[in-house]
Amino acid sequence: MNTLLILTNLPDRATAESMATLLVRDRLAACVNILQPCQSIYRWNDEIETATEIPLLIKTTEARYPALEKAIRLQHPYETPEIIALSVTGGFPEYLDWVAQETAQKNGPAS
Questions:
Q1: Which residues contact 1 (CB under 8 A, 6 or more apart)?
Q2: Could you tell me which residues are beta bridge partners of residue 33?
Q3: What is the pTM assigned to this prediction?
Q4: Contact 9, 53 (CB under 8 A)
């Protein structure tokens, strides 16, 4: 089972907490770290923008990624949310096994 680390940013803490809870509740993620606010500078619609955002680090598996991406896209307030998936090429085996166990599909809403 391939583990992934997903990065996304949200506009405020309440939205970040809501997103994190949804992803873990629906077994799309084993764990979500909500980081401290950061300053993002980017080009959008040919203008330089600045925003304070809340980064999330989301641990999941490759098998759950399609459903996780769909959930983020449905709940994310941005028109084009940042969703970046990084393959985890190593790590503590027991932790990686835990990620796989916690994101295994069960009977319920996250299928």
A1: 61, 62, 63, 96, 100
A2: 57
A3: 0.92
A4: yes
